[in-house]
Amino acid sequence: MDDDDWLTIGITEHDYKTFDYSYSSRKYILTQNLLKYAIPPFKHVRILKQDKRTWNFLHEIFDEEKQKNIVLVIGEDEYNDLKNEKWHYSKEILSTYQIETILRTNNISATKVRELIKNNANDEELLKYISKTTLNISIIIE
After folding, report:
1. Using an 8 Å Cβ cutoff, are 32 and 24 in contact?
2. What is the spatial distance between Cα 16 and Cα 127, in angstroms, rounded to a whole number?
3. How far apart are CA 10 and CA 57, in angstroms?
């Protein structure tokens, strides 16, 4: 198996964290956006429920797939938490895995989008921060 042809995505589902949308709804949003916006395209995409701590999840992928090149892609705010040792096994993750950070766009976070949705923002306001595809999917699963 060619490691570069695989994209494995973990959708977090922990009992110690609450989510505004169910796991199945978040998976649906991801798959619909992934189909439209995935760059670069991958030959194989695998979406897994990440019900373990990140350290254990990454090790499980490595052990199962014998992947030698695992890149953890996280948002800028999560990376700052990781660097500040707010994650379990922060030092080990930082020293073992390559990490790519997705920078914030226009200082907008998922928290901001969730606040807008909770406050019944109109579509025009939401479209400043999310794609039309995401907006349409969100309407379907509400």
Report:
1. no
2. 31
3. 8
Residues 6+ apart with CB under 8 A from 107: none
- pLDDT digits 0-9 by tens, 24-62: 888 887 777 666 666 566 677 777 888 888 888 888 877
Residue 44 β-bridge partners = 6
Judge whether 131 and 33 are in contact, CB under 8 Å: yes
Angstrom distance (rounded) from CA 119 to CA 115: 6
- pTM for this model (two decimals): 0.62
Q: How far apart are CA 117 and CA 114, in angstroms?
A: 5
Cα distances from 21 to residues 18, 138, 141, in angstroms, run: 9, 9, 9
